[in-house]
Amino acid sequence: MTGSGGTVTLDRDVARSCFYQDCDPGTAAWAVAHLGPQPLISLQQQPYTVAWRTKPSTYVVCADDQAIHPGLQRILARRCITAVEWPTGHAPFLARPDLVAGLLAGLATRADGAACAR
Known about the structure:
The protein is α+β, with helices and mostly antiparallel strands. Helix content is 35%, strand content 15%. It has helices spanning 12-19, 25-33, 70-77, 92-95, 97-108, and strands at 2-4, 7-9, 38-39, 58-62, 82-86. The strands form 2 sheets. Strands 1-2-3 form a 3-stranded antiparallel beta sheet, with no helix packed on it. The radius of gyration is 16 Å and the shape is globular. The protein starts with a strand and ends in a 10-residue tail after the last helix.
């Protein structure tokens, strides 16, 4: 990680291994190329509202995540109505879009409205 001007930027190789390790090489390269400086303030602020407190929600635990420990994800998932666990890394929307599409399609038909997949 490097930082200047109140931002932080991940090393591309670190980003690839932490965020996109289960993506095909072309997808990982595309994703890494689209990463940019992240304002540090966004990592330090508290949210004003938190949707899972008032909205039905679903948490996706990524069991092979190298960026956010799956154990922490399982703790966070307890806040939601539903949790699913996938054998994916940090970016299932890139590595396994079929799982994401299936989950969203299923949530769209649920009566409790738990259509907030995280």
